[in-house]
Amino acid sequence: xxxxxxxxxxxxxxxxxxxxxxxxxxxxxxxxxxxxxxxxxxxxxxxxxxxxxxxxxxxxxxxxxxxxxxxxxxxxxxxxxxxxxxxxxxxxxxxxxxxxxxxxxxxxxxxxxxxxxxxxxxxxxxxxxxxxxxxxxxxxxxxxxxxxxxxxxxxxxxxxxxxxxxxxxxxxxxxxxxxxxxxxxxxxxxxxxxxxxxxxxxxxxxxxxxxxxxxxxxxxxxxxxxxxxxxxxxxxxxxxxxxxxxxxxxxxxxxxxxxxxxxxxxxxxxxxxxxxxxxxxxxxxxxxxxxxxxxxxxxxxxxxxxxxxxxxxxxxxxxxxxxxxxxxxxxxxxxxxxxxxxxxxxxxxxxxxxxxxxxxxxxxxxxxxxxxxxxxxxxxxxxxxxxxxxxxxxxxxxxxxxxxxxxxxxxxxxxxxxxxxxxxxxxxxxxxxxxxxxxxxxxxxxxxxxxxxxxxxxxxxxxxxxxxxxxxxxxxx
Amino acid sequence: xxxxxxxxxxxxxxxxxxxxxxxxxxxxxxxxxxxxxxxxxxxxxxxxxxxxxxxxxxxxxxxxxxxxxxxxxxxxxxxxxxxxxxxxxxxxxxxxxxxxxxxxxxxxxxxxxxxxxxxxxxxxxxxxxxxxxxxxxxxxxxxxxxxxxxxxxxxxxxxxxxxxxxxxxxxxxxxxxxxxxxxxxxxxxxxxxxxxxxxxxxxxxxxxxxxxxxxxxxxxxxxxxxxxxxxxxxxxxxxxxxxxxxxxxxxxxxxxxxxxxxxxxxxxxxxxxxxxxxxxxxxxxxxxxxxxxxxxxxxxxxxxxxxxxxxxxxxxxxxxxxxxxxxxxxxxxxxxxxxxxxxxxxxxxxxxxxxxxxxxxxxxxxxxxxxxxxxxxxxxxxxxxxxxxxxxxxxxxxxxxxxxxxxxxxxxxxxxxxxxxxxxxxxxxxxxxxxxxxxxxxxxxxxxxxxxxxxxxxxxxxxxxxxxxxxxxxxxx
Amino acid sequence: xxxxxxxxxxxxxxxxxxxxxxxxxxxxxxxxxxxxxxxxxxxxxxxxxxxxxxxxxxxxxxxxxxxxxxxxxxxxxxxxxxxxxxxxxxxxxxxxxxxxxxxxxxxxxxxxxxxxxxxxxxxxxxxxxxxxxxxxxxxxxxxxxxxxxx
Amino acid sequence: xxxxxxxxxxxxxxxxxxxxxxxxxxxxxxxxxxxxxxxxxxxxxxxxxxxxxxxxxxxxxxxxxxxxxxxxxxxxxxxxxxxxxxxxxxxxxxxxxxxxxxxxxxxxxxxxxxxxxxxxxxxxxxxxxxxxxxxxxxxxxxxxxxxxxx
Lengths: 477, 477, 150, 150
Hints:
The complex is a heterotetramer, with two copies of chain A and two copies of chain C. By secondary structure, chain A is of the alpha+beta class. Chain A is 34% helix and 25% strand.
């Protein structure tokens, strides 16, 4: 077993990993860019090392500084979290060369599943349904045989980047050129391929644990169909209406890849129930807590056990329903563009069945330097309706002021009839903008009056008391 | 089903009840004394009514004002929480007369189990083991036949009040007189009885739900042996080493009492495994969350369903282990005397498997006017060792500054060998004071230096900067 | 839609041509509690400078504050920018009669060793800058008065 | 065991006959971050007036602060109580030469329209009350000086 783990990440996932490390009696090392010096993950760790870089996000991508930090602190393992270097086979190799255990799959398995074309080939070999795809080596005309609409994807891609929808032959060449240039820019690899577009699909995925020697177990399914800008916003476990054979297909892929550690096999499910392999995510996912809540398992602890060579346990039973909402600094009414500001008031929900994985604190500045994810609300209930009520309660209790968030939008979305029915697909948000209703006059006036009374000058005019004494320390009275 | 519930309580239990009400779409009404006007339960409710009384705690005991508040707000039901009027048969009757549903057992069942002598008789009638007791009507010599040591208890008692230990015949008469006068003072009823004292017993209890018509189910057991001043401090579910027949005895008692709603049947278990009926608590207990965590059930929702006349569900399965720590404003090093102060810094633990039921907020004044319970930490793990590690992590993350608490003491207690082994009994705390080790010199010096630098004058001497600007707003830099 | 004070004792605001009687109750940091026309309204609030975040009834509203003066002064009545603490005028940035836009600097002042810029809270014409450069002023003194550009 | 400043640049404290070099890092509200003899020490801290709560390494310590002066002044050097903001002396509660106990009121001052009582921070004899009743003072002015009762 490892004794000290450097967590090569920030925000909520770094905090979440460190909490398990503490429970297991393993020391934790935080890394941070100076802009994150007051961030919760730095306070939560046993030790901390500053990463220096002019660009904040680049600090967390600097393999050399991360490995030097392992050496400096004597960390014998590294947890990559998600994003950043979590799916870099080269970095996993560098860790191995430095004698640091990389908590994740082997570089070989990462490479195999990380390339979409080789992953598709693997899936097809074990009999998992894959889309009829065409690797595009010309200006796109080779893909036209698939018919329209088409989806063009980057071979090295993921996370929706480099993805283009082509609705007719006229736009094919232009979109292929755009997809190639995005793929080159994001992944350093211009290869693209085309497949038929499935309209209104669901996004289902299987959480797997592999032992790296051909063994794998499934920890149930997740429905992650609620997306905006190709990124997940709400996830739930277990998924409803899982097509027969889907979980077995995921296991066959994980086993054939000799996949080690925690991973996710993603599928697209058409409205008629047919499904296709999408990709493998070779890391802990943002949405892993919903699986933890319905299985009672700690996935980070499971990752550490696998990294220590322990055998896989028997697959867990699934209890109830869990839902996660990603609370992001963004403006749903402006195409979900990221928002910035200082978090002046932060009140987190509590109570039975509510888990909050937060990476922020009151007083923290939210900038464009990092991802917009602030925190995750995760609820668990005996049934989906109970979980939905609990999520609405949690969203109502949550207070984030000082930066715009998607919390109110998520409450409207969860209250909407399609979501309540479970009638979800990846285009739901795009098709249902769900603008906020204008406030009734009394509420609107209350908002204006409350806002006005936040102004020291208005307060002076209203109450004629010396404001410094009225607002410093404790409660106003 | 009820539409609006007045929660006749304060602190964490009022918040906890209101959260379930919100999830069920039932409106909540808070009541509060002016000293509680900034308390969390007032903010969490949909409506709020002030109770006026010169003595804060008396406000929450004022049946007339509570029923008037129900009328004023249109509340059609009342949840009493625990303590205060929760076990008052007279108040339950007054609610019924006023047309307000009392969420709890019937007045008849309350009276039957509330009197220790009639409860003992009932338990004996259904074949549950009861101690050989002697009702004392003389100066105590009638009890001497039981042998020593003896325990003298109040017939109308509970919560350890009016309880006296008698180790030999010489002190019998004096202790009987003291017990009578305490019983008269606390319960208005001087009747006392004696039973043989069991040394180092465990306190085990069974959570039951009754339908009020002779049906009852058990929701598993709890071990509440860790006590100080006859009050529970740590509880866990399920209990280990539950004697055969104990759960059935609890069910037989609940059924014979035609007990309705949630209740707890308590037992004392001797080191040799023999057990005796202790008493029935006719309300939701402080420690109910550990049962919620291992069953996945919401006990307040279950109470409301029973109050609405719904049939009892099938008993739940038990998953893993849950532990609760009561975080109280008190000084363990001074016989756990209550402490007061303003909560200047409050940081609550988070993460997987940690639930916090809090009744306080940062900035709140903790006075001697109310019970010393500030909040409850509840953890759940797949096993007892996992739950214990998680509790240690939660206690390490918890920060309560401004008033002394028992949190550090609880961490030492949980780390102690007897507790880790599960070798617990109700005298454990009294026998193991577990004083804090003096800090090592470097830590002691750091504490003194950090404390000195909290002083504006020391800061000025140290840094010679104008303090108002250094400390107002956001982070110091 | 903004709220303007139209009366005191009792405090009255006008919003959107309707008037409301308002009383303020004590509230913890980050919260507010008002009684508006006899109805208690509570919520959370954060003053982010150029905008105020208000959360009531499970909804969060962001109320922009146009041309808010930074620092030591604000608009006590619509035409006047008054000092919040004693100090000294360092510099004028405009002349009486000059047309200014919301946010344009009017006066730089020094108070408690900090320099602060008083800016116009709306598009207007400068009516007066009553305190001369280098002169001192007291709390409540008018630093600038504006008149509508009509 | 208390910490006394014994040097600046670098800042040095003496605790229990040992000296420590101390640097302070920025920290969020309710927290502190120090470097003591090269070792980073972080934790939570709350100044409760008569005592300071310090939480380090999962343990909470309560450090009493004997005879702390309440309000707008404190002991800059051991003998002097200085004003933290400008104001006016309302009243003297003691005369030079008088013996006072820790917590006894010395001077009532008015600053920013609030009246505050300056109290003795220890048992001592009043050496001087340099600002006369009704006279004004500036930030940093000595309001009272005490000498040891020896």
